[in-house]
């Protein structure tokens, strides 16, 4: 059955991984495929929302009927999200954003020279932290991709970034995390509740996430 419970809602989803350029031909990236974020955008659209999908480069086709904003770097993603944040009802940050970027972007291709090459990186803005600080009416949902101490790290991000819920995936598990078609997650809430969600497709999980958001809205 098709639900229409997001009619009249404005939803922003970020997806994919950012790319931080080193020189004209190289970048620092990560293994995000965009599948989780695109599934969320598709689910929100199917439930009647007005959806903006802000995405790093992926091989995926944006779902029909969503406003699509392609970006590359964390700085571009930040600009795109902030441009629509104040009028959004629900913001979900499934993107894998680079925490650091090269301090210098070489204007020419870096030439092969010594046996080692040292890169100096500087911190990127934490977009989600900033959204949490500027939060008004929005329901703000983050993801946490962890390889150790899943609940501890995810719980810390939930509170520190002022989120309503965080979706924690242990990305070392088979069938979970980067590039998988399924995910296995735990949902953490501000009141300390933790819900374990069994393995399911990212599209199915997207609907579970919107069901949980609706419960938060009703409270
Ligand atoms: O794209 P797929 O291949 O389908 O993979 C899905 C996924 C593993 C990428 C996704 O499920 C996921 O976990 N996304 C978040 C990945 C991540 O960067 O997690 P993090 O723990 O480093 O960041 C925590 C949260 O802060 C995330 O919501 C992230 O979008 C946000 N963040 C992080 C750093 C930064 N500079 N700005 C941010 O907004």
Describe, in plain words, how this protein is organized in 3D.
With 219 residues, this protein is α/β, with parallel strands linked by helices. It has a single domain (10-99, 120-218), classed as Rossmann fold (3-Layer(aba) Sandwich). The protein is 27% helix and 29% strand. The protein has 5 helices and 12 strands. It has helices spanning 35-46, 74-85, 127-133, 150-160, 202-218; strands at residues 10-15, 20-23, 26-28, 50-55, 67-70, 90-93, 100-102, 121-123, 139-146, 165-170, 182-189, 194-201. The strands form 3 sheets. It has an 8-stranded mixed sheet, sandwiched between helices. Helix 1 packs across helix 5. The chain is globular, with a radius of gyration of 18 Å. It binds ligand PMT. Ligand PMT is lined by residues 32-36, 74, 93-97, 99, 124, 126-128, 142-145, 157, 169, 171, 177-179. It comes from Propionispora vibrioides. Residues 6-215 form the DNA/pantothenate metabolism flavoprotein C-terminal domain. Its cofactor is Mg(2+); FMN.
> What top-tier CATH class fits best?
Alpha Beta
Domain count:
1
Q: What class do helices, strands and sheet pairing give? A: alpha/beta
Strand order of the largest sheet: 5-4-1-6-9-10-11-12
Shape: globular
- Helical stretch count? 5
Strand percentage, roughly?
A: 25-35%
Order of helix and strand elements from N to C terminus: EEEHEEHEEEHEHEEEH
CA-atom Rg in angstroms:
18 Å
Helix % is 25-40%
According to CATH, the homologous superfamily is CoaB-like
Mean of residue pLDDT values: 97
Based on the coordinates given, report the CATH architecture. Answer: 3-Layer(aba) Sandwich
Largest sheet: 8 strands, mixed
Low-confidence stretches: none
The tally of beta strands, per DSSP, is 12
Bound compounds, please?
ligand PMT
According to CATH, the fold-level topology is Rossmann fold
Amino-to-carboxy terminus distance: 25 Å
């Amino acid at each position: 059955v098709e639900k229409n419970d997001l009619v009249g809602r404005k939803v922003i989803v970020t997806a994919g991984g950012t790319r931080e350029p080193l020189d004209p031909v190289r970048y620092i990236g990560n293994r995000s495929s965009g599948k989780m974020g695109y599934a969320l955008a598709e689910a929100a659209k199917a439930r009647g929302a007005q959806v903006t999908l802000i995405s790093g480069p992926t091989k995926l086709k944006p779902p029909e009927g969503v406003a699509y904003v392609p970006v590359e770097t964390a700085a571009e993603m930040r600009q795109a999200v902030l441009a629509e944040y104040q009028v959004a009802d629900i913001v979900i940050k499934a993107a894998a954003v680079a925490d650091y970027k090269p301090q210098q972007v070489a204007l020419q291709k870096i030439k092969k020279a010594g046996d080692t090459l040292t890169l100096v990186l500087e911190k990127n803005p934490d977009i989600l932290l900033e959204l949490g600080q500027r939060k008004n009416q929005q329901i703000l949902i983050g993801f946490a991709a962890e390889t150790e101490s899943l609940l501890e790290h995810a719980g810390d991000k939930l509170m520190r970034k002022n989120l309503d819920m965080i979706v924690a995936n242990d990305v070392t598990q088979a069938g979970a995390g980067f590039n998988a078609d399924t995910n296995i997650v735990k949902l953490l809430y501000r009141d300390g509740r933790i819900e374990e969600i069994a393995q399911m497709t990212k599209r199915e999980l997207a609907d579970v996430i919107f069901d949980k958001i609706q419960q938060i809205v009703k409270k």
